[in-house]
Amino acid sequence: MKSKLTIVALLIALCVSLYFVRPGVHAAPAPQTWEYKFQYQCDEKKANNLAADGWELVNMTASGSGMTTAVNCAFKRPK
Questions:
Q1: CA dist 43 to 67, 69, 72, Å?
Q2: pLDDT tens digit string along 10-46?
Q3: Residue 64: how many CB atoms within 10 A of its CB?
Q4: Are strands 56-63 and 70-78 parallel, antiparallel or unpaired?
């Protein structure tokens, strides 16, 4: 009976030490933060230059109509 109590006590001590001795293991990771860039009248060359600098295209919209249509782009990258 005494050996069973000893084993249980050792298991409890091990669990407690694993939980409290390594607090970083239980911490939630920091959320990813982003920076954004909006490019008006975006064309393929501008988009490729921004992509080369680590920017990811996330949205494109057209503004205007007919011959005055312009493409606007939104980019993001990790901060």
A1: 15, 12, 9
A2: 777 766 666 666 556 667 888 999 999 999 999 999 9
A3: 11
A4: antiparallel
